[in-house]
Amino acid sequence: MAATKSAMTKEHKDALAQGRREGAAVRRYLEALSASRGKRGRKRTPASVERRINAINIELETSGALDALLLRQERKDLDVELQRLQSNQDIKKLEKEFVGAARGYGERKGIDYSTWREAGVSPAVLTRAGIKRTRRA
Length: 137
What we know:
Blueprint: H1 10-36, H2 46-60, H3 65-86, H4 91-109, H5 113-118, H6 123-129
């Protein structure tokens, strides 16, 4: 006997859509946090990266083949870094979306406070999202 498919209810469809929206908001915010997390040492600015690119262009005129190869790779890496620095990704907007979505998402997925913290989310953002510090047994 063939099983009949029942149509999804509007509530079920709405719940799925909400889950997708919340998951996307959480993912975008965590990715932005990860991308903006700097390395140790002096912070680079778009101006300092551009200065180094210009210096590389000058060095390329007189460098040997192997050095030129290395300089071209450094320039390519710096171009990517410059694009990242110049991208105007609005972390505040992503944070606001995260605050609205994280609690429900975390409750459904069983994500506790300490896991959010390990992912790089600040205590202030977690408080605004309504995620309280808890202890799991």
